[in-house]
Amino acid sequence: xxxxxxxxxxxxxxxxRGVRDRFDHLEEKDAGEFTISxxxxxxxxxxxxxxxxKVLIRIMLSLSNxxxxxxxxxAYALQVVEKQQQIIASxxxxxxxxxxxxxxxxxxxxxxxxxxxIRAMLAEESPLTQDEVTRARVQVANWEPNFRxxxxxLQRAKFSKPVAKGYGTLYVFALVGRGPIKQEHEExxxxxxxxxxxxxxxxxxxxxxxxxxxxxxVPQVVKLGRIADAVCVRVDGDIQGQxxxxxxxxxxxxxxxxxxxxxxxxxxxxxxxxxxxxIYAVQxxxxxxxxSPLSLAATVAGIAWEATENADTRCWGLLPDVIQVLxxxxxxxxxxxxxxxxxxxxxxxxSANTTVTINDGRNSYVMGILPAARFVGSLLxxxxxxx
Length: 387
What we know:
By secondary structure, the protein is α+β, with helices and mostly antiparallel strands.
């Protein structure tokens, strides 16, 4: 993300490819690693990324490739859909039958529309791929019905010809706000979590789950939100419109964490039971008298063992809160592009500017990164030549 903000999208793409491949490898289960984590905490497990992060890696790969003028953006966009389908299938398989059709689960793992949006955007450059454009626009409208431009894009794909001769298209992407982070939080085990914890214990130990309502440490996804609501786009000094949200990353992360919360709490409860069981087993094997100094020492050691446990708060901390986009048709030639943050109170004083060249029937791209009230780094533009 720092390489992207610094105007080096090729470096960003290279790093993201490495992380994608590493995460794919770490998704394979390791029994030894699981056992160690049950005796310590989840931070001892290799971090394979949260589900939303695995999808966003492929989104950012596609956007980085677009901004560097590469030819793999469409393939990365297809990977977005494929990865989401794989994750949804895995979540559905692990869910209990009575939970599989709950609205919360469907909402948490709904398809991200930015993948098909990028595919449609790329396919629009060729008159031979208009059927593909229409199919992708239908997916966008179905998967993200709240996207402001979904209906207009679909109508254009169905009934309009490609961009008129002497015109091209400018796509302005904005990465707005600070993305979600994780913080340690204490939760009281629910009945569902205790049930899952009992199943975990049955798979690794002969001990049963004793009643427990003591809070356990778990990670909680926190939305940091954004100061600006959108980005106002000016072309040659004239306002062309505001960017619209096509991917709400913060909400996606919170919903997926809520859907997995029972599993996370259950693992923490099962870990606590295993630690207590280990202390009791030592006391029994060594025949320590209850109430003796040695027994007290073993109990204190057990408490200290539990106290050193930490929630796994590892996360991708430099994601945006939302990804937004605006499509504009412009006459062939050079144009001055101005981006300015905007909220319900009006436009901000800060702005970012660049010049883009529009080619006949072709797409051009501009991207700005706006974590707070000002753009950071460089405004990126297609071809990898950035200000």
